[in-house]
């Protein structure tokens, strides 16, 4: 990638489009402090993160960033409720409070009936919606969604985008989403194309 500059304002919903292997996931990993850039500066919520220790980066992720992965990353041995509780457990929240929060989120999005199910019993669309709810567990200011619709059908993709749009508008959560679909209609405020190592607004 060639000197990419990306400014995402608070509350924006943006997409980064590009073919597989173009570097979209790398951009999300850099924003999420999972990888360091070769050069340049990364600021998250107005704070430069380049010089933070691994522990400081981990704490900042737990407090501010939710991740949604292409292949769900739900833990098969945990129920839906326990999967949603996981980020809260990592943040040191007690069991009663994290269970209350997880059930509250499931009820808010009309999926409380899935709370005792295991991931293997869910459809692809249900898994991805649960993954988004898990990403919201710690009240993040930012959600990073890496090709969240690539493993589900068109109908579930639409439901997923409606859910993300609702989260963006009602909760003022900043969302950065990647997709390989160059023409998909998305509820985004800005769209970028990553091609030949360069990022262009489209």
Give an account of the 3D structure:
The protein has six helices and eight strands, in the order E-H-E-E-H-E-H-H-H-E-H-E-E-E. The protein is of the alpha/beta class. The mean pLDDT is 94. The chain has a single domain, classed as 3-Layer(aba) Sandwich (Rossmann fold), CATH 3.40.50.300.
Question: What is the gist of this entry?
Answer:
The protein is an alpha/beta fold. It has helices at 24-31, 54-64, 80-90, 95-108, 124-135, 154-171, and strands spanning 13-17, 43-44, 47-48, 65-68, 142-146, 174-179, 190-195, 198-201.
Descriptive labels:
202 residues, alpha/beta, Rossmann fold, six-stranded mixed sheet, globular
CATH level-four homologous superfamily name: P-loop containing nucleotide triphosphate hydrolases
CATH topology: Rossmann fold
Count of distinct strands: 8
Determine the oligomeric state from the structure: single chain
| Structural class based on helices, strands and sheet pairing | alpha/beta
Q: Give the strand order, joined by hyphens, for the main sheet.
A: 4-5-6-1-7-8
Q: How are the SSEs ordered, and which strands pair?
A:
Layout: E1 13-17, H1 24-31, E2 43-44, E3 47-48, H2 54-64, E4 65-68, H3 80-90, H4 95-108, H5 124-135, E5 142-146, H6 154-171, E6 174-179, E7 190-195, E8 198-201
Parallel strand pairs: 1-6, 1-7, 4-5, 5-6
Antiparallel strand pairs: 2-3, 7-8
